[in-house]
Amino acid sequence: MDKKMFASIANVDFDGVLINASGVHCQTSSELDELLNDEYVAAPVTKSATLNSRDGNPKPSYFEFKDGSINSMGLPNNGFEYYLNYVESHRNNKPIILSIASLSQEECIELLHKVQASDFNGITELNLSCPNVIGKPQVAYDFEATDKILSEVFSFFKKPLGIKLPPYFDLTHFDQIAAVLNQYPLSHVNSVNSIGNGLLVDLATEAPVIKPKGGFGGVGGHNILPTALANVRAFRLRLNQNIKIIGTGGVKTAEDVFAHILCGADLVSIGTELNKQGISLFKDLNEGLIKIMHDKGYNSVDEFRNGLKDI
Ligand code: SIN
Question: With 90 as the cut, is the pLDDT of residue 93 above it?
């Protein structure tokens, strides 16, 4: 079976469609190496880097439950230079997506100036949606602030740049944020980050299952698949065609990967389930997707990508 699974974002070609969600299996160079060396991973994505390294929020900050997870990691990472060095020194292998986050607009601009001045010419992804930095809002819920940042960024940034978005839940909000995003030469949107500020209670202890923010954290995992698919679909229907989509959220099975691509995803990323099962999951999902394509008579992902039919 020779099924063609590929994607292209900003003239970067990906051999495959599966990647890790930023935050999972990507904080250290050895974790990134494992992704880089796995033939079923189309591209490693780094942990979102801030200017300075961070320990993240107090623990426990991650909890898995049936078909889901809740986290308030708080952007633990080894600092921007660590990840920039990694992507710069692994330029001849497969593509790597450099994810960055910031605690302020000034920091965001500083980081992107550093990327612009660097030898890294791959895809950078700006995380505007982390729900877990104590005292900081999720920027991409503020459409004016998002517009202001992107306007400043694209006045100097000339390399491929995408953004990671939070989930939206209102069709008017999809219209509004898409109108902002369509003004800019974004390489892609990554949709969705976790559903921010959920709360899960342990009935035995009568306390939240995670410590930071009084137990409030981002909800991920298979439970959020409908929200993730709706966001991928809503953006595919609204964004300029040259803004590609990385579908993130809810992926547990090859059927979920197929659904993401059908809704319009170019690449599909996996977080909670990758954390649960480890990187052998990529082979299983890849083989599962090949089987689905075989059963349905598709030879290439392009034959069904964005092909969601009317009921
Ligand atoms: C975190 O580090 O808190 C998770 C990353 C994110 O939600 O962007």
Answer: no
